[in-house]
Amino acid sequence: QVLVVGCGNSELSEQMYDVGMCEDIVNIDISDAVIRQMQERSGSKRPKMSYLLMDMLQMDFPDAHFQVVLDKGTLDAILTDEEEATLAKVDKMFAEISRVLQVGGRYLCISLAQAHVLKKAVEYFSQEGWVVRVHQVAGSGDKQQFVLPVFIYVMTKFRKIPGSAPQILEICPEEQDKPMRVESAERLVAAVKDRQHYALLCSQLSKTPCREQVSLDLCNKESGRPRYTLHVVDSPSVKPSRDNHFAIFIIPQGRETEWLFGTEEGRRQLAASAGFGRLVTVALHREQHYEGMAGIQAELSGKVMELAPPGLPARQQVPFLSVGGDIGVRTVRHCNTSPLSGDYVVEDVKGDGTCYFRRLIFLRNRNVVQSEVRLLASTPLPGQKKRRKDKKKPSSAEPPAAIDKSYLCCEHHKAMVAGLCLLGDPNPLPGDKAGSGRLCRGKACVPIPIPQLLGGGLSWPREIDASMLEVATRWFGFSQGDRMRVHISDGLDYVAKLAAEAPAQYDAIMFDVDSKDLTVGMSCPPPAFVEKPFLQKVKTILKPEGVFVLNLVCRDAQLKESVLATLREVFPLLYVRHIEGEVNEILFCQPSPKGRRDPTELGARARVLEGVLREPGRPWDNSYVLADMLQAVKIL
What we know:
Elements: E1 2-5, H1 12-18, E2 25-29, H2 32-42, E3 50-53, E4 66-72, H3 74-78, H4 84-100, E5 101-111, H5 115-127, E6 131-138, E7 150-156, E8 168-172, E9 180-182, H6 185-205, E10 214-219, E11 226-234, E12 246-250, H7 259-262, H8 264-274, E13 278-284, H9 292-304, E14 320-322, E15 330-338, E16 342-350, E17 356-362, E18 369-376, E19 402-404, H10 411-418, E20 437-442, H11 450-454, E21 458-463, H12 466-475, E22 487-488, H13 491-501, E23 506-512, E24 522-524, H14 532-541, E25 542-554, H15 557-570, E26 573-578, E27 585-590, H16 599-613, H17 624-635
Parallel strand pairs: 1-2, 1-4, 2-3, 4-5, 6-8, 12-13, 12-14, 20-21, 20-23, 21-22, 23-25
Antiparallel strand pairs: 5-7, 6-7, 8-9, 10-11, 11-13, 15-16, 16-17, 17-18, 18-19, 24-25, 25-27, 26-27
Helix pairs in contact: 5-6, 10-17, 13-14, 14-15, 16-17
């Protein structure tokens, strides 16, 4: 027995009757005209179905009379606001539905699921001890009939258990047969809201090109964690033809942080060079397992078509693209939690060609590589025998283990090292006397190549997070010695202590310090490191001819101007090195105008350093540091 409340002149009851779904259907409404119309329309064609004039807030039926109460849009029509009178009316409606429904019976409510409507229904029936499930039954892909998805609330009546029985709340998305359990009414409402936003997005993308890049996460059905991150990029400059409307680009694992894939401008260039009007880039998440390119294609084919551009020809085959045709290699080597930096992971990833890289990622900002080194294939030490030819070779998919200490991964690190050519010592860097100091502060892996470059000089990195020293030592080839010593301390406190005890002792001071506060428009360094009193302490411990090198990452233009102004107040000489394609800017500060270097002299120093980099037996066979130094000369 089915009761349809607020039936109106809908054909739903007639269609259910005609297809044989059920025949014992009672329809009620408060409109006399509607009831007469529907009685005349059904007449003798549907003898077991009845239409009655009745107010659902005060029904004449006995208790526990129906197995199903069906509501098609009636709740949406009544609950138009959250005024006290409206909510009281809805409470009365729910109480009557509960009264006439049998235990084990179901209240089925078809709704557009506005947040306040869904929240009210879920809270009421879950508190009554009912099982609450929300099904998405229609979306924007249904021949464009619906812009917003349609939902059905399925409320199953149980006897109320005294005390605090656990709530059973579930959502069953359109593309899934199996419902997902959620922990609270708020989370259920949020899950529905996500699907409504997605439906609106798909509707907009199907009608007009997107001016700004759109991003969204597709989550794992079991865990609810992000599995794919999609960016939709339109290229207005590409002239559409039958074969270049739409394509999907799978970013190889571990390469999602690269400029081409990890920035808006990079993705824009990627889309233009690919030659498609709309390109959807797909980043793969490290916590997930993927069954190769074919598995990803099968998994995503239906979902990505919901993001197709307007004008896509019917039955158009959409290509899946990638670099080299594979999904890349990512091997998690270590994961842990730091009291200061939170959850982090050390992973090996495959870059272009056969190169492998080891990276440190803080998961609170998972798209930023905190530290990176290049890995080398293992080579036998002097005196060791080479591998026999008949021995099994290592798999090409297995990353090598040796650290390439001649490689600097980040452009801003290269610029920071190149800034050492500003030092005022009349002798070139390789001849520095033992005992002259370089004070570094920040990422654990930055100082690794510096001792090789400084000859007899000393490097004293500061690191506030002891766990990062352990990570650097175990996973990134970092080691301490006579020329490299690490102090675990707060850099602010340590510099203040040095300024009070031993001023003017450092040739170079380098800051590469990330900020834990993501609400500030400056992610490097934390604001305290660029306040005037602290900068004056930095100047105090720096030799008059020394150089202070600072990595500045600031997206707030006003804040950046303020930082630069403060630095100029403290340091008479300030040079800025912009890193192309990145937000990073390297600031070279000198405490005395006498430190201004003649470009001819700087060029000579850079050429001397070039000779050092190419000396036999030294691992530095690259010229990228030289190029940055010559660029610094050009700027000066």
